[in-house]
Every structure is written in C-alpha cells, then in structure tokens.
Amino acid sequence: MKKIIITGMTSGIGKALYDEFSKTYFLIGISNDVKNDLSKDTKVKIRCNLTDLDQVKKINFRRILKSEDKVIFINNAASIGNVKMVGSFKINELVKITNLNFISSIIIIQKIISSVKNKNITFFNMTTGAANHPIRGWSLYCSTKAASKMFFEVIREEFPEINVINFDPGIVDTGMQKKIRTSDKSHFPDVDKFKKYKNNNQLKSVSEITNEIKQILKL
C-alpha cells in the first residue's frame, strides 16, 4: 500500500498537500496542532511537537507502516524563527529551530528506514534558496535548511534504491512570508524587497506548488 507521511500539515503547503492527498491515499500527518487519531483507516494523525526531541523519539511507525508498503515522506515542517542577527538569540531559540528544521526529520527518517525493509521509499524534502546562500537575519533558517538538504543528498548516496528529492518551491504566499514582511529592518535589511514581492503579485500560490509536487511525485 502507498502511504504518505507529511510533517507540518495544518497550515500552508503542508495543509494543502494533506487535504489533496487524503482524497486518494493513506495519509499520516504529524503536527503539534492536531489530536492523536490512529483510528482512521486511511487518515492517521500524530500529535508531536517537532521542537521536542523526546516527543519525536516516541513516534511509532511500526503500528502503521509495513515492510511491503510504498512510503513517501514529505519533510515539510520548518520555521524561519525570529529574524534577527547572530548574538541576539536565546539558547532555547537555537535549540527549537534546529530541532524543528533539521534533527526531528533525521529521527523520523531513521524510523521509516527501519520500518520499511523493502526500501520502496521516497524522501521528499522541502528545501529553499536560503539553503544555498547566506541571508542576513536568517542565520538559523539558512544553516538548518542547508544541513537538511545535505542530509538528504547523503541518503541518496547511501541508499541508491531510495528516491530522494530536494525541492525548492520558490517564494510562496504563506504565513512564513507574512512573518518575514514584518521583520525589523535593522536585523533584516532585505525586508522591503519581500514586501515588494507581495505588492507586485510575485509570490507563487500554495495551490500552484501543490500541483507541482503532485506532478513530481506522479500522484
């Protein structure tokens, strides 16, 4: 059976993907904003705060995934965090963003690989242009997304039988973009440029990206 796992499925692109795929496929959604629901035949929801690794460690796929399943993991959950300069962060901010954007997905991937013995797996990572070059005020986002992208590339090398996709959707009209536009210019000098993207209708729509992902995954 084909089963799709999506993190961060209560808003933005993640929600659109979950809503779309739930019409046809077995869905497993992971988010801190849902109640545990393991009773549905084709729609499973796992409540988990991905910034808390103790919670992530407790995710148990063995009751849901079978060795013979074809599994697609869409690593979608991420946050830009607080947009500010290095030296301004509190320690707990550093830990939470690193856990959410990077370490939690590593733990989930290890659980999937150990559960699906046939390795009929697709790992689909939502990456970003910020993973490829430095942006002032985005140190945590740039660095954690770059680390995540590289981790997926290493999986490609270690497991040639696993399909690995790093997908950059571009600049999309989501809550993250709204937050970016409210940034303090002293910490994020490019804030006006991002306001222009919105004012000039240069942002991609969530539905546009959803359709693009469906085509890439052939779903």
- In the residues, how many domains can be counted? 1
Distance between the termini: 14 Å
Query: How many beta-strand segments?
Result: 6
**Rough shape?**
globular
Q: What is the CATH architecture assignment?
A: 3-Layer(aba) Sandwich
Low-confidence stretches: none
Strand content: 15-25%
Please give the CATH class. Alpha Beta
Radius of gyration, taken over Cα atoms and rounded to an integer in Å: 17 Å
The whole-number mean of residue pLDDT values reads 93
**How would a textbook summarize the main sheet?**
6 strands, parallel
Number of helices: 7
Would you kindly provide a brief summary of this structure?
The protein is an alpha/beta fold and 219 residues long. It contains seven helices and six strands; from the N terminus they run E-H-E-E-H-E-H-E-H-E-H-H-H.
Q: SSE layout and pairings?
A:
Blueprint (H helix, E strand, L loop, with lengths): L1 E6 L4 H10 L4 E6 L11 E5 L5 H5 L12 E6 L15 H25 L5 E6 L12 H20 L4 E5 L7 H6 L10 H9 L6 H12 L2
Parallel strand pairs: 1-2, 1-4, 2-3, 4-5, 5-6
Helix pairs in contact: 1-7, 3-4
Task: Give a quick set of tags describing it.
single chain; 219 residues; alpha/beta; Rossmann fold; six-stranded parallel beta sheet; 6 strands; 40% helix
How would you characterize the overall build of this protein?
This protein has 219 residues and is of the alpha/beta class. It has a single domain (2-170, 206-217), classed as NAD(P)-binding Rossmann-like Domain (Rossmann fold, 3-Layer(aba) Sandwich). The protein is built from seven helices and six strands. The chain has helices at residues 12-21, 53-57, 91-115, 139-158, 175-180, 191-199, 206-217, and strands spanning 2-7, 26-31, 43-47, 70-75, 121-126, 163-167. A six-stranded parallel beta sheet has the order 3-2-1-4-5-6, sandwiched between helices. The model has no long low-confidence stretch (mean pLDDT 93).
